[in-house]
Request: fold
Amino acid sequence: MQAILEKVTRFIEENRQNILDDLCSLCRIDSVAHTKGGGFPYGKGVDDALCMAQRLCDEHGIDCKVSHDLGYATSKVTGGEKTIGFFSHCDVVPANAKEWTKTQPFTPLFDGAHLYCRGSEDNKAAAIGGIYISEMIKKGILPVKSSFLCYFGSNEECGMDDLKSFIKNEKLPDLSLVPDNGYPVCVGEKGIARFSAKSKKSFRTVTKFDGGTVVNAVIGTLEAEIGYTKELFDELSEKIDDKFSLSEKDGKICLCAFGKSTHAANPKSGENAAIMAAQLLCSCKNFDENDKELLSALLSLCDDYYGAGVSIAAEDENFGKNTFVLGISRCKDEKGCFEFDSRFGRGISTEMILDNIRIAFEKAGFEYSVKEVKDCYVTNTDEKYVEALMRTYAKMCGVQRETLSPHYSAGGTYARLLNSPCGSLGLSIHNFAGLDVPNKDLPSGHGEAHQADECIFLDAFLKGIVTDAMIIYELDKLM
Reply:
């Protein structure tokens, strides 16, 4: 293993600048998935990203095919009968440019240590990593007997219909790896349910209550407009702190709340701006009683991140606490329109989750619809593959294997859909072990996946490529 590791490490270090350049080329593309025009299932932006992945594969001598009508691309280095798959996605969540402090969302900025750009961490780095691993296999630097397939997706963030098309039309790899989670290895993911809700009651003085860009993130900024009264304006002026801004324009009170956005899978590290604004307004005696009732009903549903307001609070030893997060808030046609993300383990059944949330919405005075439901996932992968992966990761990090254990995730990745014969496993493409990570000098709530100023630490990314290459090398021995 040591001789192979040295060759792989040397190759990655020699291509340091090329890897950075290739990642920047992919990150420059605004690849937020949608279904509006362009003749592509998830929009022209994500198709452009798939075409860029194909171009980069070609430059590295790797054959790649884009299935434009189905929304994915695949490359394959042909070897033996068995195949190891490496699944990444090129679509990204939307970005509010006003919240970014380092650069614009699709203008990559490298400061010598970190690369800032939407998609740099989630999940375009994995796409680039797969291309370089493919090149090393093709050149014999990484000697594996199995074929190696890279999948580049375009709808992971909003439904995974791209992968469903792949599964329907292509043969699954014998073993699937999804570098969109955390080390050492992820063996299960929480169930996910998403809902939209509209208030039956109309706002009387609130004309805007808008925040959030995607349902699977805590709302970082909310902008509200309320009909102006001097009494309410003066009361708000006395109550606000530096987490709010307040002004008057065109006969309206303009209130802005500044929270802390974070992935809905980990809401405790965030601060929901919509909740902050609703709590502030509901505390004001001069706020319209009708509108106070509407926002109070919203607070009754989601004031608690862990589902107490909708009677789904539960916890299990593998998945931890259930969560319930408000991700999008809008005022449309005088109604409050909201979207929610719920994640749950096995403490409560999926059926009970849906039923309890339905009852809570109806009681609070909201019309609602279920947008998406995914059951809790636990891998069926043979233990020998899990053990080999953890053993290899331990060697790469210089730690004892006994100190590591598989983990369960609150995130949702392609792994849950990949029923490969030998199973599917989640891992990462960023290995920070033993590295001195410079301070990013970012505001709280910035710099991670789905956040403003999303970024990666280049050295951790390069080490992650080497780590995943060696994991593939060891897993191949078991195929």
User: Anything to note?
Assistant: The two ends are 17 Å apart (CA to CA). The chain has two domains: 2-189+377-476, 191-373.
